[in-house]
Design brief:
By secondary structure, this protein is α+β, with helices and mostly antiparallel strands. The protein contains eleven helices and ten strands.
């Protein structure tokens, strides 16, 4: 952002371009995707054709070579258009891939391959060092077995990035050692994915995944064996920044709907927006969203400049998630009983707003991080 507070002409052109594209997919399109669970194929194809997939991936791999700032601008515009997290999650991994060194990234950018990411486990959750999925070395490569939870897009994935232990936790000096990354074909004879019925974002399915003796070649290993946890850390800050920016976009979509309704809805002979009980929560939401937005783009600018930005990235995700949720709640309340009706869309936004509060890391773990790393308080977990 120019001077840290507004977009450059080039950045504004990115935002305008994405919003123009998204305008082709109206509220009815996303309402139908939410109702039926149908994946937004047309939207993803349009984003691919326009060259937005791989926007922040290196040019030598077929990407646009833009920064996390530009990726956040694009993803925020998707959510803000009314697509919400149904739209953002459909292209999230392709906009900023977690592993730029993967040789097959050009196929992800072109849409030829679709990737899912297997990290979370039923009994590990946020404690990645306690994962039990294992990869046993063989003469030909590795055999991977284990379980993953909340794996997005596994129903249509052709590739899977898997986090697995190559050395048991009891045999390493540091719990973060002995974890490796593998990029494998999604072999449906060895990998079973079962959708998890959930609160929102039905069009982008989440899955319980079972991996049963999956034989993979040695070159499926990403980078160096045992260094997977550290590779994961490289992608944490950009992911938090994007989630925070997307949550702000979702909140803005809800706020726009609510303000329009508050101007048009007449009760007792006057628009309900004249009542401070309606107007003030919406005004407060605008202020919260703008503050969260500044943190998100500060974190993005710091990341793009190569500066340490762990605290800012975590704060961006936390503030975006909270401000987005508050705006969606205020929008539902402003609509009164109609806020509960699907035709006004704010109930969908509110359901989706929970995503940024829960994932990819809890609010409490973010506060733990800031307490320890910024304030110097003793570690609590």
């Amino acid at each position: 952002m120019t001077n840290g507070f507004w977009f450059s002409d080039e950045q504004q052109a990115i935002r305008d371009g994405v919003l123009r594209l998204c305008a082709r997919f109206d509220a009815e399109y996303w309402r139908n995707a939410d109702e039926t669970g149908r994946f937004p194929e047309e939207f993803v194809a349009a984003m691919c054709e326009a060259g937005w997939l791989g926007a922040a991936m290196p040019t030598e791999l077929g990407g646009s070579g833009l920064g996390v700032t530009e990726a956040a601008i694009a993803m925020q515009a998707v959510a803000e258009s009314g697509a919400g997290f149904s739209g953002a999650s459909a292209v999230h991994l392709n906009i900023f891939g977690p592993m730029p060194q993967l040789k097959l990234i050009p196929r992800l950018i072109s849409g030829q391959d679709r990737m899912c990411f297997g990290v979370t486990e039923p009994n590990a959750g946020l404690d990645t060092t306690s994962l039990t999925t294992k990869a046993v070395r063989t003469n030909e490569g590795y055999v991977i077995s284990g379980r993953k939870m909340w794996t997005t897009m596994a129903q249509r994935a052709t590739k899977m990035l898997i986090v697995a232990r190559t050395t048991p936790k009891a045999e390493v000096k540091k719990a973060t050692d002995g974890i490796s990354l593998f990029y494998v074909d999604f072999d449906r004879e060895r990998i079973t994915a079962t959708p998890i019925p959930k609160m929102g974002r039905k069009a982008i399915e989440s899955n319980a995944v079972f991996i049963d003796d999956l034989h993979v070649p040695a070159d499926a290993l990403v980078g160096e064996e045992g260094r997977g946890f550290y590779y994961l850390l490289e992608g944490l800050n950009p992911e938090r920044i994007l989630i925070g920016a997307e949550a702000v976009g979702l909140g803005r979509a809800a706020l726009k709907r609510a303000a329009t309704y508050a101007k048009e809805r007449i009760v007792f002979g006057r628009p309900i927006g004249m009542n401070q009980g309606v107007a003030h929560p919406l005004a407060r939401s605008w202020a919260e969203l703008e503050a969260a937005n500044l943190m998100a783009f500060k974190a993005a600018a710091m990341y793009d400049a190569g500066r340490e930005c762990g605290a800012e990235s975590n704060a961006a995700k936390y503030l975006g998630g909270e401000a987005g949720f508050n705006a969606c709640e205020a929008a539902v309340m402003a609509h009164g009983g109609m806020g509960y009706a699907k035709e006004f869309d704010v109930e969908r936004y509110m359901r989706e707003s929970m995503i940024a509060r829960l994932a990819p890391v809890s609010r409490e773990m973010i506060l733990n991080y800031i307490a320890e790393r910024v304030l110097g308080l003793p570690k609590s977990y």
